[in-house]
Each structure stands twice: as structure tokens, then as C-alpha cells.
Specification:
The chain is an alpha+beta fold and 117 residues long. The chain is built from 3 helices and 5 strands.
């Protein structure tokens, strides 16, 4: 059983919200030697790689939305490995999103196209 950490709770809330918005779950916590992607979902003709940032309080200052370049590079490399290993997604566009989850008041912000390679 998963421990109810803030990261786990944030990822589950983000997933539920995005599913409600019509995205389809593809993979959770996909790992390879380059890194990990929290959520991989399909949004129409796009395969979306989503970084979830969970905060207990005051999550909505600009610095906490930022995904640093090193983390972006890890996500991009991980997405490349995923796409190469899953031919059924070859025809899809790739998008990189972020979900900011503030747990104290269950506020979620979905940043679609949070960064581009």
C-alpha cells in the first residue's frame, strides 16, 4: 500500500482532475534510467507528459510553478524512451504539462505546454 504522502495525494488529485477534463490515463510514475514522469496521459492526438508539483500551502507564487532546465531535460529524455518503447503512440504529438496541486484547499492549476523542448 502507498503511504499517503503529499506527492502521492497530489498525483492522484491531478489524475482525477485531468480524467474529468477528458484525458485518458496511459502510465503513472514512468521511470527509466534518465528520470521519472509523474503522469502520462492522452489528450486527443497528443501524448502528454505531466509533472505534478504538490504543495501544502501557498503554492501559487511564480517560483513554485517553475520546472528547472535540468528537470525539463530529464522529462524530455524520459519521454523519448517512453515513445520509443510504445509504438502505438508514434503518431501522436508530444506535450509537456505541469499540474500544481495545493493540498490545503484542494486548488489545482493545470499549466498546459508548461515547457517545450
Amino acid at each position: 500500500m502507498h503511504h499517503l504522502t503529499k506527492g502521492y495525494l497530489g498525483e492522484r488529485l491531478a489524475e482525477l482532475y485531468l480524467r474529468y477534463q477528458g484525458l485518458e490515463m496511459v502510465a503513472r510514475n514512468y521511470r527509466c534510467r534518465y528520470g521519472e514522469v509523474d503522469l502520462i496521459m492522452r489528450d486527443g492526438d497528443a501524448c502528454v507528459f505531466i509533472e505534478v508539483k504538490s504543495r501544502l500551502h501557498d503554492a501559487f507564487n511564480h517560483e513554485q510553478h517553475h520546472i528547472d532546465l535540468r528537470k525539463q531535460q530529464k522529462i524530455i529524455l524520459t519521454s523519448t524512451i517512453f515513445m520509443n518503447n510504445h509504438p502505438r503512440f508514434f503518431d501522436l504529438d508530444i506535450r509537456y504539462d505541469a499540474m500544481i496541486v495545493q493540498l490545503s484547499n484542494l486548488r489545482l492549476v493545470w499549466l498546459d505546454n508548461a515547457f517545450t523542448p
